[in-house]
Design brief:
The chain is mainly alpha-helical. Helices cover 71% and strands 0% of the residues.
Length: 184
């Protein structure tokens, strides 16, 4: 859409140029018109570049997040199952009991094998069905992702927590150069 807008602005600039060369009208400032259109084109191209850069950064952040989720697949599934146990519990005592049970169940060899062999949504759904928990896979995985984000295992969705690529360099505190040492 922005490319189309630039094309329209360029056609206005060409039409203004042709009018100025072929049939100039008295009192019309063609230089001002061209300058206005040129500024509009520059701003539109800057906006297009900025939006393109933001889109690239967003895709890069999503790719980093997905890679981190793959790296910590088993942790993600385990946290999702703990979230499910937490959500269905009614009081602190039941939470403690269910979480302890869940941690024990998640260490069983057949469960570890299922988690390793399956994608996270499939593993969470299968384990929820097996253990009689509500099958709200997306909700449990969202809660697991939030926990992993807070613990620093995966980057945030928007990438805002990432350090800047080029941190600013420290500037001297005063505007003057320091005096050379007295070698006197």
């Amino acid at each position: 859409m922005l490319a189309e807008l630039v094309e329209i602005q360029m056609s206005i600039a060409r039409a203004t140029q042709q009018e100025a060369l072929q049939a100039p009208q008295p009192g019309v400032d063609y230089c001002q018109r061209i300058a206005t259109v040129a500024r509009s084109v520059r701003l539109t191209l800057l906006l297009k570049g900025k939006l393109s850069q933001e889109h690239k950064e967003k895709r890069k952040a999503e790719a980093k997040r997905e890679a981190a989720q793959e790296d910590f697949h088993d942790l993600r599934v385990k946290l999702a199952m703990l979230a499910a146990a937490y959500e269905v519990s009614k009081d602190n005592e039941e939470i403690a009991r269910r979480v302890a049970e869940m941690r024990e169940r998640l260490e069983r060899p057949e469960v570890v094998e299922l988690i390793e062999a399956s994608r996270a949504p499939v593993a969470v759904a299968a384990l929820c069905r097996r253990w009689g928990l509500p099958v709200r896979v997306e909700r449990w995985l969202e809660m697991a992702d939030e926990a992993m984000e807070q613990l620093g295992f995966i980057p945030s969705k928007d990438g805002e927590d990432d350090p800047p690529a080029d941190p600013p360099k420290p500037r001297p505190t005063s505007g003057r150069k320091p005096r050379p040492p007295d070698t006197g």
